[in-house]
Design goal:
Pathway: Nitrogen metabolism; (S)-allantoin degradation; (S)-ureidoglycolate from allantoate (aminidohydrolase route): step 1/1
CATH topology of the largest domain: Jelly Rolls
CATH class of the largest domain: Mainly Beta
Largest sheet: 8 strands, antiparallel
Number of domains: 3
Helix content: 10-25%
Distance between the termini: 42 Å
EC number: 3.5.3.4
Family: Belongs to the allantoicase family.
Structural class: alpha+beta
CATH superfamily of the largest domain: Galactose-binding domain-like
Order of helices and strands: EEEEEEEHEEEEEEEEEEEEEEEHHHHH
CATH architecture of the largest domain: Sandwich
GO molecular function: allantoicase activity
Shape: flat
Number of helices: 6
Number of strands: 22
Radius of gyration: 24 Å
Strand content: 25-35%
Protein name: Probable allantoicase
Length: 412
């Protein structure tokens, strides 16, 4: 836990619980004083003193009623009594850190909190989530009032939902869940899409300047509603230029570039170029040459896929702001396989077995291949596949069936 003066490195990762990514608070056992949906509001919590409603001071957060004991002889709640709220992550992924922010809750913050996570595919109901097997990712820890508590998480698994438990009751202003997006490969197979998009796993890894706003806004979902939802640098006073680098979802071919300067009028860059990191050599290659930009405009350009790339770099000349960068393209076969194997290694065993069976393996084959995880290379998958029983038929039909099923899911 920190006092938030020096944010932990995980705060540079995507907030998987952002409503802009599609997150939602799907259930809570109580929200009498303040609504559960406030937990994932994007802006920092506010406090307006002496603003009372029918249930008391209006708080910008999630706040439950005061718990009581079971009887006149037991007036206090037990040590295990607690309230909870379940958040559906906007993008499933590996959680690297969590922030539990009790901003403005002073005499009404919880004594302690814990966080659990689970992976349930599809759109499960609150009842289905309650019945699932949850994993504790942050053990029960004491909280302070009016504090952003940062918790690093070490749980090498892909999760779809988190559950915040507060003991015994009280209020939490905001919940942030930072991590790495890991998309189900079946959702992207055969499609062209934005290879840099946050919702699919693209992430800004570096920037020359972030004085006015974050480079993480560049690949956010949707269009920027105001200038502050883009990336903007300070005014440059030397002859250099500003830049942002982003890791793509995985190795892919870029077919189109969009540089959106919406809302940037007097502070639009004069020119911009886009480069990609060659998947084979690691060298930067030109995708879009230096191009004139216009204020408040979506610039859309088709480009020839010269090479497979794993990262991108936007250079703006000399400085200014860009609302969004989109890199439309498709994963290469190697990129699809790498992405699918990462997903396969991170989902729970039951989920991996179900996906393999749906692709065409028998139950026994699916269980055996899942038990062989982690499988990080094509060669490892082939070795595990060749060990599956029963032995192949004389015409090779069993091998063909198994390999077709594995290809459908993992692309190897």
């Amino acid at each position: 836990m920190t006092d938030n003066q020096n944010p932990a490195p995980f705060t540079e990762l995507v907030n998987l619980a952002a409503r802009s990514l599609g997150a939602g608070v799907v259930a809570a056992n109580d929200e009498l004083f303040a609504e559960r949906e406030n937990l994932i509001v994007a802006k920092p919590a506010e406090f307006r003193p002496h603003t009372f409603g029918h249930k008391g001071q209006i708080m910008d957060g999630w706040e439950t009623r005061r718990r009581r004991g079971a009887s006149v002889d037991e007036t206090h709640p037990t040590d295990e009594d607690h309230d909870w709220a379940i958040v559906r992550l906007g993008a499933a992924g590996v959680i690297r850190g969590v922030i539990v922010d009790t901003a403005h809750f002073t005499g009404n913050y919880p004594e302690s909190a814990s966080i659990e996570a689970v992976s349930v595919p599809g759109s499960p109901s609150p009842e289905e989530l309650a019945a699932a097997e949850w994993t504790e990712i942050v053990p029960r820890t004491a909280l302070k009032g009016d504090t952003a508590h940062e918790f690093e998480v070490s749980a090498p698994q892909r999760f779809t939902h988190v559950r915040l438990n507060i003991f015994p009751d009280g209020g939490v202003a905001r919940l942030r869940v930072h991590g790495e997006v890991v998309v189900d490969p079946r959702a992207l197979a055969g499609l062209t899409f934005d290879l840099a998009a946050q919702e699919f796993g693209g992430v800004a890894t570096g920037a020359s300047d972030r004085y006015f706003s974050s480079p993480h806004n560049l690949n956010s979902l949707g269009r920027a509603a105001v200038m502050g939802e883009g990336w903007e640098t300070r005014r440059r006073r030397n002859k250099d230029n500003d830049w942002v680098e982003l890791d793509l979802v995985d190795e892919g071919e870029v077919l189109g570039v969009e540089i959106d300067t919406t809302h940037f009028v007097g502070n639009c860059p004069g020119w911009a170029s886009v480069s990609g990191k060659d998947a084979a050599t690691g060298e930067w290659v030109e995708l879009l040459p230096r191009t004139r930009l216009q204020p408040d405009t979506r610039h859309q350009v088709r480009v020839e896929p010269r090479t497979a790339v794993t990262a991108a770099r936007l250079d703006v000349f000399p400085d200014g702001g860009v609302a969004r960068l989109r890199l439309t393209g498709r994963l290469t076969e190697a990129g699809r396989a790498a992405h699918a194997l990462r997903w396969f290694n991170l989902v729970p065993a039951a989920e991996a077995e179900q996906a393999l069976a749906h692709a065409g393996l028998t139950t026994g084959e699916a269980q055996a291949l899942t038990a062989a995880r982690p499988l990080t290379t094509t060669e490892a998958v082939r070795a595990a596949e060749s060990a599956l029983q029963p032995a192949d038929t004389p015409d090779g039909a069993e091998n063909s069936r198994r390999r077709a099923a594995i290809w459908r899911l993992l692309g190897v």
